[in-house]
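Morning, I've got a small favour to ask if you have a moment. It would help a lot if you went through both lines with me. I owe you a coffee for this, so here goes:
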Amino acid sequence: MKKVVATILVVMLFVAVMGGCSKKETKKTIGISVDQLFESRVGVIDAAKAELDKNGYSYIEVVADGDPQTQNAQIQSLINQKVDAILVCAVDQNTIETALLAAKKAKIPVVAYDRDLPESEAIDSFVGPDSIADGVEAGTYMAEQLKDENGKVVVLELLGALNDQNGIDRSKGFNEAMAALAHVEIVAMPTDWDSAKALSATQNAFQANPDIKAIFAATDTQIPSIETVLTDLGKMNKVGEEGHVIVCGINGSNDGYEATANGIADGIVVMDLKTTGETAAQHAIALIKGEEIEEKVVIPGIFYTTENIEANKDTIWGAK
């Protein structure tokens, strides 16, 4: 009798082990390729990972630290590990195409998030901000504030990185909106998303054009640099005060929130990081299941001013 019971237990253990192995083998894995880690990127990635966890998917996260060649190699490594789908935010939209085409050849679906890859032949879907609309929102507000100014009005535009589609599109949208004012001259200065470069660019711009009336920052993390320059020049007058220089930005960081809440900036466009991350993960899952998805989903931000930003603090990712 003891022998029979022992045999039954062994069989039950075998079935349990095999069942566990079978369950483990069927769990899908998604590769997450990150360009570099900073506050807003972490917000998108955390939302994507939470969505994958919720749906029972595992993931492998790799970070390129801003190096396109590293990202190329990391994507190839994800392919070699036979991930079931790849989420990618490109360092450089041209450099990683070779690796993305290798993923396509291996029949691994690819979802680009946050940064569009419009020339890519390997992307199945893009989920990210509507950067043109975000630029238009900031530009429309600024144009409204400047429409009654007399004579030529000089506006400083602090550009993002010009190899970044978000930087290109934010500038495009901003300039489209400002084109409504014939008396405005826009002085564009490159910053490559770098706050130190934004500081020197703002200093140089004011040295050449002391009467700059307004500043558009492609990312609101550069507003502290703007504040430093305005303070040094004795021009740091808050919203509503005589001599105020209009300041707008895009992102939704704590820098942007605090500057707008305190009247240093007039307003910021706040990106929806949570929806972007969740939707990108949902697209990857849908592609693994063979379901149809939209090829492009853009999520516009919301513009908040000094008048309403504190009332909406709970919806602003950088203010939490």
